[in-house]
């Protein structure tokens, strides 16, 4: 069972809707990997003793973990927080999320600055590279329980777009250029 991803439409409707183009334009795992987005599907029912999760954490140095339970009744100023998560931004570090329950969307920009919507569900572990423009929102279920993983103490600072001069963004753009051998213009 692979993750679902697609190019988004240009609609300004509720951010929690799928926003698929008509006809739908799916995005493959290979295309996501070209952007530096990594994905695993694990068994969320055994996350506490999951050997595969342990291997990933050890190989990538994720030594800190916490949980995030997002639903209206658990989060003060829920709608405002959701709007804040939906603001386009980058981080200086990878963003690692493992969906244990529920579902949500991560939107990432591709090389042509188009939005790709990635629908994460229980069992999906996704890694967004440092410097990639992205945003997050719940879907219409309005619920997700996520494990957040970090290297060292958690630092979660969002740098809202534009950030073309941020070192993480420059490194990310350089990595895309090296992968394809064609310079990527700043957006």
Automatic annotation (TrEMBL):
Q: Which Gene3D superfamilies match?
A: Jelly Rolls
**Main localization of the protein described in the UniProt heading:** membrane
Which reactions does this protein catalyse? 1,2-dihydroxy-5-(methylsulfanyl)pent-1-en-3-one + O2 = 3-(methylsulfanyl)propanoate + CO + formate + 2 H(+); 1,2-dihydroxy-5-(methylsulfanyl)pent-1-en-3-one + O2 = 4-methylsulfanyl-2-oxobutanoate + formate + 2 H(+)
Q: Which GO terms describe its cellular component?
A: cytoplasm; nucleus; plasma membrane
What broad class of enzyme is this?
Answer: oxidoreductase
Q: In this entry, which stretches build a coiled coil? A: none
What EC number(s) has UniProt assigned to this enzyme? 1.13.11.54, 1.13.11.53
Ligand binding (Ni(2+)):
89, 91, 95, 134
Instruction: Tell me the keywords, alphabetical order.
Output: Amino-acid biosynthesis, Cytoplasm, Dioxygenase, Iron, Metal-binding, Methionine biosynthesis, Nickel, Nucleus, Oxidoreductase
Domain of life (superkingdom): Eukaryota
Give residues annotated as binding Fe(2+).
89, 91, 95, 134
Report the membrane topology from the UniProt record: Peripheral membrane protein
**According to its UniProt record, where is this protein located?**
Cell membrane; Cytoplasm; Nucleus
Pathway listed: Amino-acid biosynthesis; L-methionine biosynthesis via salvage pathway; L-methionine from S-methyl-5-thio-alpha-D-ribose 1-phosphate: step 5/6
Q: Which cofactor does it need?
A: Fe(2+); Ni(2+)
Under Pfam families, the record lists:
ARD (PF03079)
Q: What is the free-text note on the cofactor? A: Binds either 1 Fe or Ni cation per monomer. Iron-binding promotes an acireductone dioxygenase reaction producing 2-keto-4-methylthiobutyrate, while nickel-binding promotes an acireductone dioxygenase reaction producing 3-(methylsulfanyl)propanoate.
Q: Which GO terms describe its molecular function?
A: acireductone dioxygenase (Ni2+-requiring) activity; acireductone dioxygenase [iron(II)-requiring] activity; iron ion binding; nickel cation binding
Q: Does the keyword Repressor apply?
A: no
| Gene Ontology BP, a term | L-methionine salvage from methylthioadenosine
Main function:
Catalyzes 2 different reactions between oxygen and the acireductone 1,2-dihydroxy-3-keto-5-methylthiopentene (DHK-MTPene) depending upon the metal bound in the active site. Fe-containing acireductone dioxygenase (Fe-ARD) produces formate and 2-keto-4-methylthiobutyrate (KMTB), the alpha-ketoacid precursor of methionine in the methionine recycle pathway. Ni-containing acireductone dioxygenase (Ni-ARD) produces methylthiopropionate, carbon monoxide and formate, and does not lie on the methionine recycle pathway.
Which family, according to the similarity comment? Belongs to the acireductone dioxygenase (ARD) family.
User: This chain belongs to which protein, by name?
Assistant: Acireductone dioxygenase
Q: What is the source species?
A: Theobroma cacao (Cacao)
Gene name on record? LOC18603053
């Amino acid at each position: 069972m692979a993750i679902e991803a697609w190019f988004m439409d240009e609609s300004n409707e509720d951010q929690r809707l799928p926003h698929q183009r008509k006809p739908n334009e799916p995005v493959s795992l290979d295309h996501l990997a070209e952007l530096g987005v990594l994905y695993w599907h694990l068994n969320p029912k055994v996350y506490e003793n999951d050997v595969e999760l342990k291997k990933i954490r050890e190989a990538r140095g994720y030594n800190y973990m916490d949980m995030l339970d997002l639903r209206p009744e658990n989060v003060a100023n829920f709608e405002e927080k959701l709007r804040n998560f939906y603001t386009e931004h980058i981080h200086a570090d990878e963003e690692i999320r493992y969906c244990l329950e529920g579902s949500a969307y991560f939107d990432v920009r591709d090389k042509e600055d188009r939005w790709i919507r990635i629908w994460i569900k229980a069992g999906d572990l996704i890694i967004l590279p440092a410097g990639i423009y992205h945003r997050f929102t719940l879907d219409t279920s309005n619920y997700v329980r996520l494990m957040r993983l970090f290297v060292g103490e958690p630092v979660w600072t969002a740098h809202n777009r534009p950030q073309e001069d941020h070192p993480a963004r420059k490194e990310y753009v350089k990595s895309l250029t090296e992968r394809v051998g064609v310079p990527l213009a700043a957006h």
